[in-house]
Amino acid sequence: MSVSALSLTRFAGSISGFLQVVSVLGLLLLLLKAVQFYQHRQWLLKAFQQFPSPPFHWFFGHKQFESDKELQVIMKTMENFPSAFPRWFWGSQAYLVVYDPDYMKVILGRSDPKAHGTYRLLVPWIGYGLLLLNGRPWFQHRRMLTPAFHYDILKPYVKTMADSVRLMLDKWEELAAQDSSIEVFQHISLMTLDTVMKCAFSHKGSVQVDGNYKTYIQAIADLNNLFYSRVRNIFHQNDTIYSLSSNGRLADRACQLAHNHTDGVIKLRKDQLQDEGELEKVKKKRRLDFLDILLFARTENGDSLSDKDIRAEVDTFMFEGHDTTASGLSWIFYALATHPEHQQRCREEVQSLLGDGSSITWDHLDQMPYTTMCIKEALRLYPPVTGIVRELSKPVTFPDGRSLPKGISVILSIYALHHNPKVWPDPEVFDPSRFAPDSPRHSHSFLPFSGGARNCIGKQFAMNELKVVVALTLLRFELLPDHTRVPIPIMRLVLKSKNGIYLHLKKIH
Fold it and tell me: Which segments are annotated as binding site for heme?
């Protein structure tokens, strides 16, 4: 045999041997994964033995939840399983879905961290800001940022909010003249972004006039959808596999767009603070705005916050400060449009308080009780954040005696809680009297801003904005539903409508 033929034979033999080794290693890895899958599944089954659930597939879990009808399926399931039920995403991943106020009170009264398996998927987008931090770092950031929401800071924001609203309403006047329904969420989203940019980030221009910001709004919408689908896909839990998928590439592009926006906001403010006049103005303030707190903050060892930390907090508040508020407002408008008698009563209250609405102040916000009741009832029916997830850091026993071990993840379903007939009689009926000052209710039956130590830091900011927007809009327009396009609520990071929220707007003369 020639030398070249011998070499070729040896080469083929070495390739064959290598492939055999790879095959054996692959089989061993597969076997190891199968064992881990089985062991974790058995642990979950034992942990949830006190909590019955609807039938589920051993590998695919509760497939009946895998659609845009997830909210409706949870409502149906709630009828048969009091307080809570295990939701199986697949054979080795399950969460306890909770919708009982006593259960909520127990979990929110503890210091369990956010569930890493779920929230880590948000890290490429919003980093480790207040939403995702746990333990001491969370406490330090919360304490640092709390002064940004002091009433001395929030008071002057009312005028800024009103200016942004009027700009949107002027645009609506032009569109209303065309006598067709308007998809309000897109407009409201730009307006709430405009407001948060001016209030929290000292932005001078107008987001609603500058068309460039539509790309940021679209990126946030894409990330909402992509996060929702990734959480429910077993193969997309691995970062490498996800990055190679079409959804992973889309998410990467959307993250880049969102980061470009927030990096621009931070750079612009840093450049402004290079000006001595602007710097002196800031130093004379008793309290600083959100971004200025971050830029002037010092850690415990005296260092400035890193660019990564600043961007994470800006990304977090930019998203939470505009998208959740836009969702809340859109659904509030829909609720008022479909209940004209309550809408009119709100309008009369606002007219008697504000006249033509040319001036709305901080003091007015506590003088519209019926409008506030309607806002809260709409937030009950359509909570912007449908649920939050905690991972038990120690075992828990609920008031009914059932218990769970450390390590289980619990979904606090705010949407299901707000629609629970054992908590709210006739839960689908819009009834603002539920929130009358003398109306009794459980301390944890209404949680649009979560509860406990980790409740929403911007709760007062958001409620103020909701009141300003609703009041000024009702002075200018009568809201009417578009019966040909009834919105379909769907679960995302923020409650959205599958087909948009379309309303007819009738100018009030």
Answer: 456
Residues marked as binding?
A: 456
| pTM reported for the whole predicted model | 0.93
Q: What is the pLDDT of residues 399-442, one digit of tens each?
A: 999 999 999 999 999 999 999 999 999 999 999 999 999 899 99
Query: Based on the structure, what is the number of domains in the chain?
Result: 1
Is 28 part of any domain?
no
Give the CATH number of the domain where residue 237 resides.
1.10.630.10
Give the orientation angle of helix 307-337 with respect to helix 459-476, to 10 degrees: 40
Q: Nearest 10 degrees: CA dihedral of 369, 370, 376, 377? A: 160
Residue 36 domain flag: no
Tell me, yes or no, whether 157 lies in a domain.
yes
Tally of residues, the chain: 509
pLDDT band at 11 (very low <50, low <70, confident <90, very high): low
Question: φ, ψ for residue 56 (rounded to 5)?
Answer: -145, 155
Residue 378 resides in a domain: yes
**By residue range, what is the domain housing residue 361?**
48-507
Q: Could you read off the pLDDT of 59-103 as tens digits, one per residue?
A: 889 888 877 889 999 999 999 999 999 999 988 999 999 999 999
For residues 265 and 201, the answer to whether their CB atoms sit within 8 Å is: yes
